[in-house]
Amino acid sequence: MEETISLQELFATLKKRMGLIVILTLLAIIIAGVVSYKMLTPIYETSTQILVNQEKTDASQLLNQNIQTDLQLINTYSVIIKSPAILGPVSEQLDLGLTVEQLNSKITVTNAENSQVVNVSVQDPDPAIAVDIANTTASVFQEEIQQLMKVDNVSILSPAVLKENPAPVAPNPMMNMAIAAVIGLMLGVGIAFLLDYLDTTLKNDQDIEDVLDIPLLGVISPIKEETQKQVATSRRRAG
After folding, report:
1. What range(s) does the Polysaccharide chain length determinant N-terminal domain occupy (predicted)?
2. Which domains does the chain have, with CATH numbers?
């Protein structure tokens, strides 16, 4: 006989195991909060902006050509910034014991579409070190690009500044706790249905019919305690 589950049975299972679901959800939130606030190292981010621009000229046509050339070079510059040719001298100047690969993993280079501004972002557990890495990278790039590309079209537009009370960009405790709540809820619901599936006890007359595959002829109703007392009293009086 094919077994089917109605929505009513599903909601009944959830209601029956609601305590388990709530406990698992709260437990997941608490664990995520403790890990985010107490165990994960805060990461700070700072950035510096580099402007790619040719020298000014009176001829508008030449100016437009220079802008297009700068835009085409930006992708190349983005790769050069994270190359050993730049990060090697940065590592030597900072003397932080960081390799080129370690510096590379901390730096992100981006630029908006059709923009001559390159944004160099740096993430580090120490906000002061992040500022030093960003500014040193921009400075070294400005110097080295003249030798590498034989151009002088790079200037530092906005250096990185150490804020008085910097806020970490990671971890995000609220986001982690929200994700943990969803995972805990899903885990609780899954365990609730698993426990219900593994529970093979016969709970009602429908379960008996499903297991024996024969029609149920009758049901003996439970006798309430008050009814039993009344029957016993009546028997004593009759005796």
Report:
1. 3-94
2. 7-36+172-238 (no CATH), 44-158 (3.30.70.1130)
